[in-house]
Design brief:
Shape: globular
Largest sheet: 6 strands, mixed
Mean pLDDT: 92
Strand content: 35-45%
Order of helices and strands: EEEEEEH
Low-confidence stretches: none
Length: 76
Amino acid sequence: MTDVTQAMLGQDVVAAGSGRMGTLTAVNADGTIQVTVDGPAESTFTIPLAWVQSSGNGKILLSHTVEDVQSYTPPA
């Protein structure tokens, strides 16, 4: 698993099979990260840290698609 740290906040997040989808806005203690998606209706999604495939060059690459991110529901 790729380490994602507070120092990486603000980096671009890229979903599998697509381009940039948003910005890393939080790294949570519970093993999740928060991604804020740009657009007229700015949205924030919390996803498992395990979905991060790699990071580098100011980008965080996910192993899941935009649709996966949008439909993920954290366990209660």
